[in-house]
Amino acid sequence: MKDLKLLEKNARYMNERQFSNLVENLKQDGELTSLPLCAPDDSGRLEVLSGNHRVQAAIEAGIEAAEVIVILSPLDQKRKVAIQLSHNSITGQDNAGILLELYNDLDLDMKKYSGLSEDDFDFNEIDLSSFNLSSVKYEEISIGFLPVEKEAFLQLFEEVGKRAKKHPRFVAPRSQFDEFFDAVVDVKGRLNIHNSAVAIAAMCELALERLQQIEEEQQQKEPQ
Questions:
Q1: CA atoms within 13 A of residue 113's CA, in its CB half-sphere
Q2: Fewer CB within 10 Å: N-end or C-end of the chain?
Q3: Residues of the chain scoring pLDDT < 70
């Protein structure tokens, strides 16, 4: 492991707690469970393009040798940097609800191994005492709109039969949050929308289109 060449410039960093957790995990595993990606430099020495922290942690954990993935085709420096950045940036996102559910199923040792802590799920508590609905458990989601977007959004709600101006707060079953969240993400991806408020407004427009389709289908079924 000590023969590997680490990157001189690495945009990815770990704080002390994260690195210590990684070292402890590797001591427990006794081997690398995620292989570093390497490529030969001009002298033929293997340079780590992805997995620098794992290599450093493995050395500190006392792992002397490990398998690595080696790119044998020639790479120029720009290509190496592009590979490094892509491995750092293209990582996906976590669904917070599912992540918390999985975390809660772990025992104490496995929670420590996961690298997560209770602080990673430190959601702000919402004070609902003023609503005097002690028998109902729910969470409130606030969505920010620009003034023009707000008016358009409220008009869309009025068109689908919602009294948005009279009742600006809406309550839905907590169990539907993941379904709603996935729908927003899907709309943003399919329509290339980056703002969640705009995506929700687009969902209203899609709902109107579907309601119109249902109405037309019902009219076609009515006897002439």
A1: 10
A2: C
A3: 122-146, 148-149, 152-153, 156-175, 223-224
The sign of the CA dihedral 52, 56, 61, 65 is positive
Cβ density class 193-223: b for 16+ within 10 Å, e for less? beebbbbbbbbbeeeeeeeeeeeeeeeeeee
**Residue 216: its H or E element:** helix 196-221
Structure pTM? Answer: 0.49
Q: How many helices (H) and strands (E) does the chain have?
A: 8, 3
What CATH number has the domain bearing residue 43?
3.90.1530.30
Taken in order 198, 203, 204, 210, the sign of the CA dihedral is: positive
Whether 69 and 146 map to the same domain: the answer is no
- 99 with 70, same domain: the answer is no
| Phi/psi of residue 52, nearest 5 degrees | -60, -45
Local structure of 178: helix, strand or coil: helix
> 111 lies in which domain range?
95-123
User: Is residue 181 a part of any domain in this protein?
Assistant: yes
Please list the residues that pair with 48 across neighbouring strands.
38
Predicted confidence at residue 29, as pLDDT, reads 93
